[in-house]
Amino acid sequence: MAIMSILKYPDPRLRLKAACVDNVTDRTQQLIADMFDTMWDANGIGLAATQVNVHERVIVMDLAADGSEPRVFINPSIKIIDATCIPYDEGCLSIPNTFETVERPSHVLISALDQQGTPFEEEATGLMAVCIQHEIDHLDGKLFVDYLSSIKRQRIRKLLKKERA
User: Which of these is catalytic: 56, 69, 135, 163?
Assistant: First the structure.
């Protein structure tokens, strides 16, 4: 297992679209294991492969505070069941120490492959619905700051550049 480097905003590689995974291989399994190690090490609850500079449609997630509910989503897609948006203070491992309120649909149907490559569907609400939408956005080259005003985005970019200087 390895801790991978997480790309930080505004790195242009975060804007690349991820390719579908054709076959779940040993390499895919190793990527998943390394992504879990990386996410847990960074105290995150979700991580898209794009964030570790692997442009494949793979997401790992664990919403349990004790890390006991690891989930894998390969080639995920969602359908909105209830378009009523809920506000949620979102953060991101690629945009450290930044939390902003974003509104997303409250109820979605997730279609994906699990870690073994078996297709499944699952309904999600609350934090699970928010997190899967956030991570799928990463796979599509989109970040939660894209939902904010340009003034807020510029402020965040300046703060992050100042922190790195």
Answer: 135
